[in-house]
Amino acid sequence: MINVTDIAKEKIFELRAKEGKTDNHNIRVAVQGGGCSGLMYDLEFDSEVREKDEIFEDKGIKILVDRKSLLYLLGTTLDFSDGLNGKGFQFVNPNASRTCGCGESFSV
Q1: What is the pLDDT of residues 27-49, one digit of tens each?
Q2: What is the pTM of this model?
Q3: Which of 20, 40, 42, 62 has its CB 3.0 to 4.6 Å from that of 105, i.e. a possible disulfide?
Q4: Which residue range is the domain that position 36 belongs to?
Q5: φ and ψ of 100, to 5 deg
Q6: Number of domains in the chain
Q7: How many C-beta neighbours within 10 Å does residue 8 have?
Q8: Are strands 86-92 and 77-83 parallel, antiparallel or unpaired?
């Protein structure tokens, strides 16, 4: 399961409207090789559900995750911060043994 905080939910709704996306555009979360810690998160709107996707829903947000990425993301919470120490979506991932300062890459 992947969870979404209330503030992340509101920001997703806001960005989806601002970008002219419909309710059919879900959030796709993936893990790719790269970043300063070895793995990095990829977050985008996607209206296509692929054959090997797992679909989660939390607070009215549908989250699409491919099965390979799911191994790294189970139990993760998607959050959003707009404070002085950073702005943007953040992943609170219990599977990560190390994360970089920017919060966009991690290792297990």
Answers
A1: 999 999 887 778 899 999 999 99
A2: 0.86
A3: 40
A4: 3-107
A5: -85, 170
A6: 1
A7: 21
A8: antiparallel
